Amino acid sequence: MRRGTGRDGGEFLRHARHVPGLCPMMAHGGSGVIASVCSILGLVNMPANGTYCASKAAGHSLLQGLRGELAPKNIRVVGIYPGPVDTRLTAGLEIPKASPEGVAQAIVEGLVAGAEDIFPDEMSRQAHAMMLQDRSWPRGNSGK
Questions:
Q1: CA atoms of 116 and 140, how far apart (whole Å)
Q2: What is the Cα–Cα distance from 103 to 111, expressed in whole angstroms?
Q3: What backbone torsions phi and psi does residue 88 show, to the nearest 5 degrees?
């Protein structure tokens, strides 16, 4: 197993630390939206990046818990699960990558449409479709 890097788990810890402080303000205002960019790797695992995938899975799990906890307060929690996007993080990887502009547009469209989970690029949509077809995949909240 590869040793974790500084990026593994950081997003989860930031969410766990900062989201509770935002919720009272949103609840006082009568509604709100928390949208978090996770990764499709939080729903599937890539052995070469096991610790990174595990940190993304922890973020997904946190969103699921927050969604149930905050729904009665009219606070919507949205998970965003892109595949590889053409950024500095994926520079040098010889894999298909979505454009940042295309992903951003899909996220905005998903938010406007009221989606709970957004798969903003072709790779993440295909992975999500395969998960839905696999009867062994845990169901839960699979998005709209």
A1: 12
A2: 12
A3: -60, -35
